[in-house]
Design a protein that fits this description.
The protein has 441 residues and is an alpha/beta fold. It is built from 13 helices and eleven strands. 47% of the residues lie in helices and 12% in strands. The relative contact order is 0.07.
């Protein structure tokens, strides 16, 4: 929690001292602001080194943007020497990365020592039990050692021990825990085994081991799965939107600020496209099409017209390569994604987000929801101008069900792993994809 805030503050003070600036009340105020923006820090232990670098840089760019924006707006930035500010912008993420990788190295060594390891038992040698044990063994930073399994089935009936011992039956568990040092017990039994679970919990009350329940409901494909409380009653979220509470506020504010800034910057481009569309083909400048938005409700999405037709009926044919309906200027707009620019107005209206699953025509939705399991789950969030599927190669025509299936898989992965950092990374990747991708036509 404190690694990122302290790294940023340390680098700030270091830059001030390097340039012989006095560390006074100015830096105290700035340090408090930085601490509030970066606390609690992110735990990046489970990420690959390359992703740690990416996540750290993205998080810092977001904080730096906020600081610079309000610093210039309030003129408070004028209280700091420019060389200190510029040096800090570079030194801050470097200091964070050094701190994170140093912590990883230290924790890996500490977790490998026998006296620091947490000894656990998994009850139930099934899919979720084996998955838990594999996670314990595969993440050295957890400092967890899986001793083995307890299961009522005979060893001949169990095919997925993965070189871990079967220590006994459920009736022997409490006695084993009393006789051996066991810190934690994970119950990975089917929910249908309620009488056995209750009896086992009664037996374990006479031990000091911590007990955790991992029901088989978590084997399913969860979207934002978590524990929650409703009027004091514990419930499990199986499928929910990531934009609840403060996350929804942050997402909306980000959409509004970025959309206004982008529309102001591209206003000359918008004017040029309007002239280009009017001069190259007859018809309106904007194309309006019905799409599914948040919670599957119909919305109207704007695009610059790129075709000689405006299909929005019960059957909508996707654009294909060398499609005769596409005008010459429209082809340029589609390849460069400039036809999507009016959707920033949709974002300001609250119908769309800058980043989210791409909206499909209503006719396409009605077709694919019957063919692809979980298709409609993507509508738990607002559709986006760009999305995780688009920056991973699934932009443009989806002429087969398999291609649409892959697009939906990326959309659902976005819902599971959403963060502001991921949104910013998708925006950056979108710019690169637009210039090199050839799947849109």
């Amino acid at each position: 929690m404190f690694l990122d805030p302290f790294s940023l503050i340390l680098s700030l003070i270091g830059c001030a001292l390097y340039f012989d600036d006095t560390v006074d009340a100015r830096y105290v105020v700035l340090s408090l602001v930085v601490f509030s923006l970066s606390f609690p820090g992110s735990s990046l232990l489970s990420m690959r080194p390359r992703r740690v670098v990416r996540q750290t840089v993205i998080n810092w760019l977001l904080i730096a943007f906020i600081l610079l924006f309000f610093g210039y707006a309030s003129q408070y930035i004028g209280n700091f020497p420019s060389e200190v500010v510029l040096a800090w912008l570079v030194a801050a993420p470097v200091t964070q990365l050094v701190a994170h990788f140093s912590a990883r190295a230290y924790l890996r060594r500490a977790a490998a020592q026998e006296e620091n390891q947490t000894r656990v038992i998994v009850v139930g040698c099934n899919e979720i039990g084996v998955r838990l044990a594999d996670q314990f063994d595969g993440n050295p930073f957890l400092g967890v050692r899986c001793i083995g399994y307890f299961d009522d089935r005979s060893p001949e009936r169990i095919t997925q021990l993965n070189n871990r011992p079967l220590l006994g039956r459920l009736k022997d568990l409490a006695a084993y825990v009393k006789a051996n040092r066991v810190d934690q017990i994970y119950l990975a039994l089917p929910m249908a085994s309620q009488p056995r679970i209750l009896s086992l919990l009664d037996d374990l009350k006479d031990t000091t081991a911590s007990v955790f329940f991992a029901p088989d409901i978590f084997v399913t494909d969860l979207i934002q799965g978590r524990m929650d409380y409703v009027a004091g009653v514990p419930v499990v979220a199986v499928c929910d939107t990531p934009f609840t509470g403060i996350n929804g506020v942050v997402k909306r504010i980000t959409d509004i600020v970025l959309s206004i800034a982008i529309l102001l910057l591209i206003s000359p481009v918008l004017l040029a496209i309007v002239i280009g569309v009017k001069m190259t083909s007859p018809g309106p400048v904007l194309f309006r099409q019905r799409r599914y938005g948040l919670d599957g409700k119909e919305i109207v999405v704007y695009k610059f017209r790129s075709m000689t037709v405006q299909e929005d009926g019960g059957v909508v044919r996707q654009a294909t390569r060398n499609d005769q309906r596409i005008t010459r200027f429209g082809g340029f707009l589609r390849r460069s994604s400039l036809d999507e620019l009016p959707q920033f107005i949709n974002v300001l209206q609250g119908r769309m987000s800058i980043v989210g699953p791409r909206p499909h025509a209503v006719a396409h939705n009605e077709t694919y929801r019957k063919l692809i399991k979980g298709y409609m789950v993507r509508h738990k969030v607002k559709p986006g101008i760009t999305g995780w599927a688009q920056v991973n190669g699934y932009r443009g025509e989806t002429e087969t069900v398999d291609k649409m299936q892959k697009r939906i898989e990326f959309d659902l992965e976005y819902l599971r792993n959403w963060s502001i950092g991921l949104d910013l990374w998708i925006i950056v990747k979108t710019i690169a994809v637009v210039f090199r991708d050839r799947n849109a036509y």
